[in-house]
Amino acid sequence: MATYVIIDTTEITDENSVIDFSKLMNRNGAMLRYSTDGSKALVKYKGEQPSFLSGKTTYTHDEIKVELAKSEWNIDTE
Question: Containing domain of residue 26, as a range?
Fold first, then answer.
């Protein structure tokens, strides 16, 4: 079962980024889901939490579905 974490996109784009995509199910930045304003991204992993995500809030599949239903993640097409 996958575990999900929401991170700031600066953690990906910063020149000192410690995001190791080899430890994530998302193999690169293009595979991430981004918030509508581009400030947050969703990463997921299986198994033990990668050290670079230590201290961050984790979500189960059901919990992340609730988060992603919020307006900051959905583009309103109406």
Answer: 2-68
Cβ contact 59:67 at 8 Å: yes
**Residue 78 belongs to a domain:** no
Work out the pLDDT band at 77, boundaries 50, 70, 90.
Answer: very low
For 68-75, the CB contacts below 8 A with 24+ separation are 68/33, 68/42, 71/36, 72/35, 72/36, 72/37, 72/40, 73/33, 73/35, 73/36, 74/36, 75/36
Mean pLDDT of the chain: 91
Q: Is residue 75 part of a domain?
A: no
In which band, very low, low, confident or very high, does the pLDDT at 74 lie, cut at 50, 70 and 90?
A: confident
Q: Does residue 77 belong to any structural domain of this protein?
A: no
